[in-house]
Amino acid sequence: METGELVVLIDAFNEMLAQIQQNEKALREARDDLEERVAERTAELETSQQRGEAFSFSILRAKDELERAKQI
Question: How far apart are CA 6 and CA 13, in angstroms?
Fold first, then answer.
């Protein structure tokens, strides 16, 4: 193998390595972004669930109070 061919192969290898590194970086950033979005959405859902439970509890309490008031 001639020196020129070796240089071409090394350059091609280095270019592929740089592309792989860029792809890995992009994948890490996308994964991190997705994990952040999932965490935010999970927190939103938990808050919504807590509000729904609180609302349901207040409705049941109001129903109980109404039934007691009817008995008086």
Answer: 10
Place of tokens 């008086």: 72
pTM: 0.66
What is the tens place of the pLDDT at every residue in 7-29? 999 999 999 999 999 999 999 99
| Residue 5: how many other CB atoms lie within 10 Å | 9
Question: How far is residue 36's CA from residue 51's CA, in Å, rounded to a whole number?
Answer: 23
Element housing 7 (H / E): helix 3-71
